[in-house]
Design goal:
There is one protein chain. By secondary structure, the protein is of the alpha+beta class. It has 2 domains: 3-160, 2-Layer Sandwich (Methyltransferase, Cobalt-precorrin-4 Transmethylase, Domain 2); 165-306, Immunoglobulins (Immunoglobulin-like). The protein contains 6 helices and 20 strands. The longest helix is centred in the N-terminal third of the chain and has 17 residues, at 43-59. It is elongated. It starts with a helix and ends with a helix.
Length: 308
């Protein structure tokens, strides 16, 4: 959800001056995600302050900046509005020239009023680290935008090198041949999504199924271990094992079972990307009855549930 929708309950481009007045009348305090800026009509000075706040929002959690607002007192907008003569195109150009790198999803909305403009700037949280040319990095600390320490920058840069992975799955009923009549056949579709700007290196997906009768990938049946009727499936999706931002990797596994089974999916990469999911699946009702991310439940507890 964008911050304009969070604060105004509508898309940015639909916010009116009356909406802004009503919002300011409530005297909301500036906070981590909200900043008010009054215009001084000294364009260079105003741009410098706005850029600092936008940069800080990008590097922290995102936020909404209202430019042309009443002068803040005790971090609250009080009194008359101090409109700006600046237009949104000039502001957008200044931000793109000053921020390194620029974020294409910064949205600006100009509200024209007699005597000037109010400009809303809706800033998303960024996966990258941004700086102001010649001035450095800024972050949001409470209701203020402050220079970031070298240690924090190094920490963020290191974090940005680690892929942000998510496991999604779907289990559907299918015919499963050459099995006893009381076994039910299912297809497990696994997707690994990369939400970061870092491309995965040597992605591997390890799927372990407990309490099943049989499992296969394509035409290849997987040998089960005697203990726990366990099938361990180790697959590498692509020859390169790479997923770039916004992309996904997927594979399908067929299995059969007559009792509640446990599925453990683990995805990991050479560059420290890691995500896990534990699933308890009931074949009788054909639904997931429990699910935890990153080994939230211990196997010993599942053994009790599965009556192994």
């Amino acid at each position: 959800m964008r911050y304009s929708e969070k604060f105004f309950g509508k898309p940015l481009e639909q916010v009116t001056f009356d909406d802004v007045v009503r919002f300011c009348d409530k005297e909301p305090e500036e906070r981590l995600h909200l900043e008010f800026k009054s215009s001084t009509n000294k364009v260079k000075d105003d741009i410098s302050k706005l850029t600092k706040d936008v940069c800080a929002f990008l590097n922290t959690e995102g936020g909404l900046l209202i430019y042309g607002a009443p002068r803040d007192k005790d971090n609250k907008p009080k009194g008359p509005f101090f409109f700006t003569k600046m237009i949104v195109n000039d502001l957008s150009k200044s931000l793109s020239d000053t921020l390194d790198p620029y974020h294409i999803d910064i949205r600006c909305h100009q509200i024209e009023i007699e005597g000037g403009n109010v400009i809303l700037i809706d800033v998303p949280k960024s996966d990258e680290l941004h700086q102001i040319v010649t001035k450095g990095f800024y972050i949001r600390v409470g209701e203020q935008s402050k220079p970031a320490s070298t240690k924090l920058i190094e920490s963020r840069l290191q974090k940005n090198l680690i892929p942000d992975l998510e496991i999604k799955y779907k289990i559907t009923k299918i015919p499963f041949y050459n099995l006893l009549s009381f076994d039910k056949g299912f297809e497990l579709k696994i997707e690994i999504h990369n939400h970061s700007t870092t491309t995965t290196k040597n992605l591997r997906i390890l799927t372990t199924l407990f309490n099943i009768s049989r499992s296969k990938i394509g035409d290849r049946f997987i040998q089960l271990s005697e203990k726990y009727k366990k099938a361990k499936v180790f697959t590498l999706d692509y020859p390169s094992g790479e997923i770039s931002k916004g992309m996904k990797s997927y594979h399908n596994i067929e299995f059969s079972c007559s009792k509640t089974c446990l599925i453990h999916i683990k995805a990991f990469t050479q560059n420290n990307g890691h995500v896990e999911k534990l699933i308890l699946f009931n074949p009788k009702h054909q639904k997931t009855i429990q699910e935890k991310d990153n080994e939230g439940l211990l196997y010993s507890r599942f053994e009790e549930v599965l009556n192994l």
